[in-house]
């Protein structure tokens, strides 16, 4: 096991002998969804903020013109869908450029939070509860986003391919699809054959986070100070597997990035694995 304590952005790691990773407990879709409906989820990922989303959007807009792709005369005629929008930070970042934005999320609390955040920042947008395993519309968006690993948490085999097809269905011909996932090269290096335990402060409370790879998934077990336990689960998909999913869907890969500054992906150093693709 490797243990680390995180306080105010600093981490101290203490290596110990790795212990075998035990199979995770049986976790239902409802168990997974419950975590996203808690205020603690927002607290744990508070550093994933609007400023980070704006960094991605700014660099994207420097390279790609959505108005040219859509033929729109004004930004408001360009429609962007964030599928798995969370609390709406990417919606706000794109809406500030004048685009029409729509957020989709399965978690009711995320939908409520995203609507509230749009109002707080005085930008226009729509947010709906929706399961992205099915298309929300047909050929209605110039750009569809799936950001911050809002993908790969389904238990059913091959569901990832179905989701890529659903996302593609929502994109207009000639439009873009962006998927932002973990860099599993680095995850494998960190977690292969062992469990990592982190301790993080949430306000005045200390929570424990266990991270490990088991049964083809990357797991997080979040244990709160009051005894509640929540789970995150993402399928362990290597970058080449994600690329194959896109190609099977008939999408053209335009770029592979390693962070929100859109620097080229490098397996050993990149924080993320981000695919930009185009629908023929």
What would you note in describing this structure?
This protein starts with a strand and ends with a strand. Helices cover 30% and strands 32% of the residues. The chain has nine helices and 13 strands. With 280 residues, the protein is an alpha/beta fold. β4, α6 (108-120) and β5 form a beta-alpha-beta unit. The chain has helices at 29-36, 39-44, 50-63, 66-70, 89-95, 108-120, 159-170, 184-191, 239-248, and strands at 2-7, 10-15, 79-83, 100-105, 126-129, 141-146, 171-182, 196-202, 205-214, 217-223, 229-235, 252-257, 272-278. α3 (50-63) crosses α5 (89-95). The protein folds into two domains: 2-28 and 185-235, no CATH class; 43-183 and 238-278, 3-Layer(aba) Sandwich (Rossmann fold). The longest helix has 14 residues, at 50-63. The strands form two sheets. A seven-stranded mixed β-sheet has the order 5-4-3-6-7-13-12, sandwiched between helices.
User: How many structural domains?
Assistant: 2
Mean pLDDT comes to 91
Strand order of the largest sheet: 5-4-3-6-7-13-12
Please provide the count of β strands. 13
Question: What is the fold-level CATH name, i.e. the topology of the largest domain?
Answer: Rossmann fold
CA-based shape: globular
Q: Give the low-pLDDT segments.
A: 1-18
Give the quaternary arrangement of the chains.
single chain
CATH architecture assignment name of the largest domain: 3-Layer(aba) Sandwich
- Which series of helices and strands comes N to C? EEHHHHEHEHEEHEHEEEEHEE
Q: What is the level 1 CATH name of the largest domain? A: Alpha Beta
Strand content: 25-35%
CATH H level of the largest domain: which superfamily? Answer: Vaccinia Virus protein VP39
């Amino acid at each position: 096991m490797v243990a680390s304590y995180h306080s105010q952005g600093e981490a101290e790691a203490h290596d110990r002998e790795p212990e075998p990773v035990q199979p995770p407990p049986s976790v239902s879709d409802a168990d997974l969804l419950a975590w996203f409906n808690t205020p603690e989820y927002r607290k744990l990922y508070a550093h994933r903020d609007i400023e980070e989303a704006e960094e991605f959007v700014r660099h994207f807009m420097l390279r790609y013109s959505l108005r040219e792709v859509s033929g729109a005369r004004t930004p408001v005629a360009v429609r962007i869908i964030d599928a798995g929008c969370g609390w709406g930070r990417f919606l706000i970042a794109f809406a500030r450029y004048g685009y029409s934005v729509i957020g989709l999320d399965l978690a009711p609390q995320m939908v409520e939070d995203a609507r509230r955040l749009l109002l707080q920042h005085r930008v226009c947008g729509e947010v709906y509860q929706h399961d992205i395993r099915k298309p929300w519309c047909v050929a209605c968006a110039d750009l569809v986003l799936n950001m911050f690993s809002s993908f790969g948490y389904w238990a059913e085999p091959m569901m990832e391919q179905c989701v890529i097809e659903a996302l593609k269905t929502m994109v207009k011909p000639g439009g873009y699809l962006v998927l932002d996932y973990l860099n599993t090269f680095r995850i494998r290096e960190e977690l292969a054959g062992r469990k990592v335990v982190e301790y993080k402060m949430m306000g005045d409370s200390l929570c424990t986070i266990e991270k490990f790879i088991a049964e083809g998934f990357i797991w997080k077990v979040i244990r709160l100070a009051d005894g509640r336990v929540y789970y995150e689960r993402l399928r362990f998909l290597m970058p080449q597997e994600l690329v194959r999913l896109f190609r099977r869907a008939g999408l053209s890969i335009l770029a592979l990035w390693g962070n929100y500054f859109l620097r080229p992906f490098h397996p050993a150093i990149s924080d993320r694995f981000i695919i930009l693709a185009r629908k023929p």
